[in-house]
Amino acid sequence: MIQKKICMVGAFATGKTSLVSRFVNSIFSEKYYTTVGVKIDKKTIDIQAKKINLILWDIHGEDEFQKVRMSYLRGSSAYLLVVDGTRNNTLEKAFDLQTRVENTLGQVPFILVLNKWDMTEEWEIETTEIDAVIQKGWTVMKTSAKNGLGVEEVFQTIAKKILDG
Predict the structure, then answer these.
(1) What CATH code is carried by the domain that includes residue 106?
(2) 72: helix, strand or coil
(3) Mode of pairing for the β-strands spanning 78-84 and 140-142
(4) Which keywords belong to this entry (predicted)?
(5) I need a labelling partner for 37 at 20 to 30 A (CA). Which of 9, 14, 21, 154 fits?
(6) What is the reported pLDDT for 119?
(7) pLDDT interval class at 116 (50, 70, 90)
(8) DSSP secondary-structure letter at 85?
């Protein structure tokens, strides 16, 4: 069986833990728990007639008090850059993190995940900003950990990118 490490990276409270919980356990909790350090989960999926064991590293969110430890990224085959669509500053943080992650890991597959798509009435990120990111050649996917929209697809897509890479 193929095993691949995928890191969840983003600002604090973007929904990284909720996305992993929805994907691994099919659950969502309204309670907010700050990730301290790193939380590791696993899920085996079938991609292209192969079993792949995804080792998901849910790294604590970055904020003004705490920087993501780049050492957590070592050995990663890919990462998900998670943004909270209701907070535009999390997109700016994602751009900064992407540069730092790439400087640490080199070029590995990643997806910019626009989370909280169920809250579109509170959305702060403009379509033009999303289009600009797509123009850079980035893969952008919309998700909602709350209702499950796009969650399975994000993990399937990143697994395919790893296998195709």
Answers:
(1) 3.40.50.300
(2) helix
(3) unpaired
(4) GTP-binding, Nucleotide-binding
(5) 154
(6) 95
(7) very high
(8) T
Q: What are 49-90's pLDDT values in tens digits? A: 899 999 999 988 877 666 778 888 999 999 999 999 999 999
Domain range for 82 is 2-164
pTM: 0.93
The number of angstroms, rounded, from the C-alpha of 135 to the middle of its chain's C-alpha atoms is 20
Residue type at position 153: E
Number of structural domains in the chain? 1
